[in-house]
Structures are given as C-alpha cells and as structure tokens.
What does this fold into?
Amino acid sequence: MIKVLENDSRKLFTKVLNEYEDKIKKEGIAVSSVILDESSGKAIVHYAEKEEFDLIVMGSGNRGTIGRLLNGLGSVSNYVLQHAKCSVLIIKN
It folds into this structure.
C-alpha cells in the first residue's frame, strides 16, 4: 500500500513540476526539475553539492509573525542555510 501511495505521489508531483516547467520555458528561461528520495533539507544540500551550485534560492516557511519570532526560519530553509557549502538566498514568503 505504501509503495502505491509513493508511486501516485511521484506521478502527481511530476505532473505539477512539468506544468511549472512549461510556464517557465515559455518565458525563455532554462529550467529543469528533479524529485529526490531524501528528506527535503538534506536532498537540497546534497543535490546542490553534486551539481556544484553557486547559489540556492528558496522561500522561508510562512508561519506569521509569532511563528517566526518563536522559531526563526522554517526547518528546511534553516537546515539548508546551516549546511550548504554555497551561498543561500532566503526569500520571505
């Protein structure tokens, strides 16, 4: 049952990513996407290292003022900021 759910999720994510890629390509911007089987923060950091990225750009979790005061950045953006070997730009959502 879990394998079926994983496959269905992968198909849905692939479809959504392909739709966004098509929109971005229509604007004349080169784009590619990848789905990785690893926790989000680790996957971003490892993929950026493997591909030798110069910069990672990502949004922070939109938790509102109180959530940001209590917890700072979202857990994924915080992990990437702390572990990436390249520069990281966090965009406020």
User: Anything to note?
Assistant: The radius of gyration is 15 Å. The helical segments are 2-26, 40-50, 64-71, 75-83. Strands lie at 55-59, 87-91. The chain has a mean pLDDT of 87.
